[in-house]
TrEMBL record:
Pfam families xrefs: 3-dmu-9_3-mt (PF06983)
Organism taxonomic ancestry: Bacteria, Pseudomonadati, Pseudomonadota, Alphaproteobacteria, Sphingomonadales
Domain of life, per lineage: Bacteria
Protein name: VOC family protein
Cited CDD domains: PhnB_like
Domain (PhnB-like): residue spans on this chain: 3-120
Length: 163
């Protein structure tokens, strides 16, 4: 387990979501813990149901907690995925919007559980490290018109090439 593991709150779908994310990104489901059958404290889930799932994506550990309906995901937290290229970005985008997910602005995607993801390529991330603020501004202006990011169009804008 990593020193810091994001804990994602679910309302009964923790194990299903962990398997889904491991399938999309090629990770693993590492451990499943259960609520005690006889639980003396108030519990949002039935005794014996899944409490916590530990899973790993790209070497980063995560926890999925079945905490009940009190909290849901919003855009205040997202998971950013640096994709090798446009094909990988396209593959993750399509997988995350399948079965009830939805695309959002500027490369953001909300999956079927409501968790927000940012999908961006290595090439675009490298451009953000440039000292050329004018080129970055051109690239960002183009990005603001997109849902799924188009690396070639963003690179052309960064390079100052007309669309």
């Amino acid at each position: 387990m990593s020193k810091i593991s994001p804990c994602l709150w679910f309302d009964g779908q923790a194990e299903e979501a962990a398997h889904y994310y491991a399938g999309v990104f090629g990770g693993s489901v590492d451990h499943v813990s259960y609520y005690p059958q006889e639980n003396s404290s108030p519990s949002p889930m039935a005794g014996g149901s899944v409490l916590l799932v530990e899973f790993t994506l790209f070497g980063q550990s995560y926890q999925a907690l079945n905490g009940g309906p009190q909290f849901t995901f919003d855009e205040a937290i997202s998971l950013s995925v640096e994709c090798a290229d446009q094909a990988e970005l396209d593959r993750y985008h399509d997988a995350l919007i399948a079965d009830g997910g939805s695309p959002g602005p500027c490369g953001w995607v909300k999956d079927k559980y409501g968790l927000s993801w940012q999908l961006v390529t290595k090439a675009i991330m490298a451009n953000y490290h440039s000292d050329d603020k004018v080129a970055i501004a051109r690239m960002m202006a183009v990005m603001m018109t997109m849902q799924k990011l188009d690396t070639a169009a963003m690179q052309a804008a960064f390079d100052g090439e007309a669309a």
